[in-house]
Amino acid sequence: MVKAKCPECGADLDLQDPVIREIVECPDCGSELEVVSLEKNKVELKIAEIEGEDWGE
Ligand SMILES: [Zn+2]
């Protein structure tokens, strides 16, 4: 388990087995977050750039 912080809302996330470029969803604000760096016990996330047309209903 690795700790990460949501850059959008600041919530603490627990990631099981993060991989660089993996997209995870913040359980708090629902933002899609991309894993940009991995260190021993720390993961850095950024807001994922969503491409495509998923915004419409
Ligand atoms: Zn969040």
In short:
By secondary structure, the protein is an all-beta fold. Helices cover 0% and strands 42% of the residues. The protein has strands at 2-5, 12-15, 23-25, 32-38, 42-47.
Would you give an account of this structure?
The chain is mainly β. It has a single domain, classed as Rubrerythrin, domain 2, CATH 2.20.28.160. The chain has strands spanning 2-5, 12-15, 23-25, 32-38, 42-47. It has a 5-stranded mixed sheet, with no helix packed on it. A hairpin with a 3-residue loop joins strand 4 and strand 5. It is globular, with a radius of gyration of 11 Å. The protein binds zinc ion.
Output the keywords:
57 residues, Rubrerythrin, domain 2, five-stranded mixed β-sheet, 0% helix, 42% strand, binds zinc ion
Widest sheet: strand order?
2-1-5-4-3
What about the largest sheet?
Answer: 5 strands, mixed
General shape: globular
First-last Cα distance: 35 Å
The tally of domains stands at 1
Instruction: Examine the coordinates and then state which fold CATH places here, giving the name of the CATH topology.
Output: Rubrerythrin, domain 2
What ligands does this structure carry?
Answer: zinc ion
Mean pLDDT across every amino acid position: 90
Supply the CATH architecture: Single Sheet
Give the helix tally.
0
Q: Which bin fits the share of residues in helices?
A: under 10%
Q: Structural class from helices and strands?
A: mainly beta
Poorly predicted sequence stretches spanning 5 or more consecutive residues: none
